[in-house]
Amino acid sequence: MIAIKIKEVKKFMSLLFAEHFFDAWHLSEGTIRTFVTYTIDGRYEKEFFHNGERAEEDACPFVSWGILRESCLNLIKGRNTPLYMKFVLRKEPADFPALPDGDNVDALLLLIRFDSSGLVLTSGLSQKSFTMDKDAEEFWDKELRKLILSTGIAEEEL
């Protein structure tokens, strides 16, 4: 697990809310605190869809960030900065064929946390069963680090 402090908060927020950079990721959960607190469960509500239709074609039980991005942006628009935001984004192991022990990995996670102390990104891994092997975690940390470096946004590892 790695934690990365983002130094250029506005640039990263633009990447998150105004661009398509994270659209293919799925939202596991989210919290936005402005004058009230909004809590988002990223799981599809099956009862909402009729005749087996879904807004997305893939089999993932979570909604993509691309579908929720604009709604979340609308919640934070205004003169005042949100007091707190947390988003847990996830990627599926199938997206990374070189992932060690991929059959045991349920999801590759990115926790985005913003508050008055700044913006921190934290990597995480959800595994189906406990293992002492850290190869998958180390792989994900490296992949996430490459992804953040590719944005050109100033950051520092904590």
Descriptive report:
With 158 residues, the protein is of the alpha+beta class. It has one domain (3-152). It is built from 3 helices and 7 strands; from the N terminus they run E-H-E-E-H-E-E-E-H-E. The protein has a 7-stranded antiparallel sheet, with helices on one face. The longest helix has 17 residues, at 135-151. The termini are close together. 22% of the residues are buried. The model has no long low-confidence stretch (mean pLDDT 91).
Number of domains: 1
Characterize the largest beta sheet: strand count, sense, and whether it forms a barrel.
7 strands, antiparallel
- Kindly estimate the percentage of residues that lie in beta strands according to DSSP: 25-35%
* CA(first)-CA(last) distance: 11 Å
The number of distinct helices, counting runs of at least 4 residues, comes to 3
- Counting helices, strands and paired strands, the structural category is alpha+beta
Radius of gyration of CA atoms, rounded to a whole number: 16 Å
Whole-number mean pLDDT: 91
| Secondary-structure element pattern, one letter each | EHEEHEEEHE
Q: Trace the largest sheet across and list its strands.
A: 3-2-4-5-6-1-7
* Low-pLDDT segments: none
Tell me the helix content. 10-25%
> How would you sum up the global shape?
globular
| Total beta-strand segments | 7
